[in-house]
Amino acid sequence: MKKLTQYWLSALALGLLHQSVQAQSKGTKEQQEVLAGLEKKTPSYGAISKKIWDYAEVGYQETKSSALLQDELKKEGFAVQSGVAGIPTAFVATYGSGKPVISILAEFDALPGLAQQAVPERKVIEGQKAGHACGHHLFGTGSTAAAISVKDWLKQTGKKGTIKLVGTPAEEGGSGKVYLVREGVFKDTDVVLHWHPGDRNVANPSSSLANISAKFRFRGISAHAAAAPERGRSALDGVEAMNNMVNMMREHIPSDTRVHYVITRGGEAPNVVPDYAEVYYYARNKDRDVLQDVWKRIVKAAEGAALGTDTKMEMEVIGGVYNVLPVESLAQLMHKNLDIVGGVTYTPEETKFAEKISETFGTSFGSLRKSTEAGTVMPFALPNKAESMGGSTDVGDVSWTVPTVGLGTATWVPGTAAHSWQAVAAGGMSIGVKGMMVAAKTLTLTAMDLFNDPSLIQKAQSEWLEVRGKNFQYEALLGNRKPALDYRK
Ligand SMILES: [Zn+2]
């Protein structure tokens, strides 16, 4: 009974909250009209995101997801160039002409091994191998929605300038954007906008970790593991010796470094000495120099492991991304607009879903967060105070090439960690769609500001040059390798 009363009280409170948000709508009349236009299209963008959620295509294999977004943009009058930078699923959709040029990033790759139904308990989807545990189906669709609404506004007002939607595959480990940067896709862009699904609404000038990843392949000699082990050389021994050394090394590297691995091949049967084994490594640090130093030592451990186990080792660098370079003035602009748009208000059904999800978090983690936090916007914090996102993103490389600004919105129940089944679940239902529309709206308002006031772009560019350094030369951390189109195969 008590529970029921609480339920109705919170539903009532949310209803009132919703009303008051509507009553004190912020922003100019023009902004409100544009936002209302986007709001009306929520069901259709929700349906697109759900399709991409269903496809759940992993890095560089996002054929259907990429085609769906391209079709939508073509229908809306964008000129679409596909197969950019040697990547079949990368594309650039352009509308308008001349300066300024604003580009919005759109991701759409899923994560392997994280299939989950859109329900608040752990339930896999039988036969599905991947899931949108980082919400990139929302990322791609929300950015597309923003690009289209900016296009409509440019058309209606007759403003000069170009809006681009850049379809960027394989963010999860494939470093897709690095190849687009190398190809010069952002050469004529003045400001890049992006966003990321999350468990809160925030537009702080925060950074991320630089990252290098590689597959280390060991080759030995197979033999009967009991009858003739002396004739064998175990490739798995090579992998294990390397892991052992790297794990000891952890004590002697800067403690804010992250190193993680999975053994992707380790032999087929215990009675055969494995002649082939593979381990897939990531190393990360916020400082690229520290990272490169640690990385050299990881490679030495691999070489030492091969020497000691009498196996052969070869390394293939798969990914490499920069840390994100924040631009404070742009983040302030984004924050101002996020504040106009406001957070996500749950219906009673969504609140129930959120509460069930919260119950699945460990006690010291997300369960302390309230679902109503999705309705709030985090206060603005300066770069030195802004929490760095724990992960890495290939947006980093873009941000060292063009002034770049992003935001995060509450597409997941507050307290949800990225790359979890709880993220897949909320992303597949209305909570995810609502958070996505907050992003689409905020990106739209920010682009409108930039088109309206070129001095904002000038200010951002000089600030960006200052923090980046004038003599900076971009060099991809993954060298000049071709896109690792088969890294998920
Ligand atoms: Zn992500």
Task: List descriptors.
alpha/beta, disordered N terminus, 6-stranded mixed β-sheet, 42% helix, 489 residues, 4-stranded antiparallel β-sheet, binds zinc ion
Describe the protein's topology.
Elements: H1 2-23, H2 29-40, H3 42-55, H4 63-75, E1 79-82, E2 91-97, E3 101-106, E4 111-112, E5 130-131, H5 136-157, E6 161-167, H6 176-183, E7 191-198, E8 210-219, H7 235-249, E9 258-265, E10 276-285, H8 288-309, E11 312-321, H9 328-341, H10 348-359, H11 395-399, E12 404-410, H12 421-427, H13 430-452, H14 454-468
Parallel strand pairs: 3-6, 3-7, 7-12
Antiparallel strand pairs: 1-2, 2-6, 4-5, 8-10, 8-11, 9-10
Helix pairs in contact: 2-13, 3-4, 3-5, 3-13, 4-5, 5-13, 7-8, 9-13, 13-14
The structure holds zinc ion.
Distance between the termini: 53 Å
Helix content: 40-55%
Number of helices: 14
Taken as a percent bin, the fraction of beta residues is 15-25%
* SS-derived structural category: alpha/beta
How many DSSP-defined strands? 12
Bound molecules: zinc ion
Order of strands across the biggest sheet? 1-2-6-3-7-12
Spans of at least 5 consecutive residues with low confidence: 1-24
| Order of helix and strand elements from N to C terminus | HHHHEEEEEHEHEEHEEHEHHHEHHH
Write down the overall geometry.
globular
Task: Give the rounded overall mean pLDDT.
Answer: 93
Main sheet specs: 6 strands, mixed
Radius of gyration: 24 Å
The quaternary structure here is single chain
